[in-house]
Design brief:
49% helix; 2 domains; mainly alpha; Cytochrome Bc1 Complex, Chain D, domain 2; signal; Cytochrome c domain-containing protein
């Protein structure tokens, strides 16, 4: 345990010695991940530095296995933490840090996940879609991948933003019980 602690602190020290704008992602699972995050938090607290610990899947390795990759994969596991980074970098300057600014008819915070996805698809495919800022959004929509859009939606609407849509679209068992006025259900 002492070797682990000293090695972790050495890594943190070396990482903090580099330029402040470099970010390091370390994937650690289970109990080891918990211990490493506690050490990093303690080190940051002791040295008055900032550390962010993300506990979720790494979407940078997310592979969309659908045959037709249209739109956001509703069953995809997107990272809300990556979505926050992307939103702050690509969207917040116009839409506000809390998605409260209304650039079109409705602010993003008041739109459903499906509406946000549909709007991005329309900006990508229809040059007449949108208001006075449509050229900005059309260019932005073409640079944001479906995976990154899924992450942004996970940040804005939560990881289960598409859950109700998935449940509605799945096949339901067929009932063979006869009822008045119906043949098969």
């Amino acid at each position: 345990m002492k070797k682990f602690t000293s090695l972790s602190l050495a890594c943190l020290f070396v990482a903090s010695a580099f330029a402040a704008n470099e970010v390091y992602y370390i994937k650690a699972n289970g109990e080891f991940g918990k211990q490493l995050s506690e050490i990093a938090k303690q080190y940051a607290n002791d040295n008055n530095t900032k550390v962010e610990i993300f506990v979720d899947e790494d979407p940078r390795k997310y592979k969309d296995t659908r045959i037709l990759k249209t739109g956001v994969n509703k069953k995809g596991h997107y990272s809300a933490s990556l979505g926050k980074e992307l939103y702050e970098k690509d969207c917040a300057s116009c839409h506000g840090i809390n998605a409260e600014k209304r650039m079109g008819k409705t602010a993003l915070k008041d739109m459903s996940a499906k509406d946000i996805e549909d709007s991005m698809i329309m900006y990508r495919n229809d040059s007449s879609f949108g208001g006075s800022m449509r050229t900005v959004m059309q260019n932005k929509a073409k640079t944001i991948s479906n995976s990154n859009l899924g992450a942004i939606i996970a940040h804005l609407k939560g990881k289960d933003a598409f859950a109700s849509e998935i449940n509605e679209s799945e096949n339901k068992p067929v009932s063979t019980q006869k009822q008045q006025g119906s043949y098969l259900r």
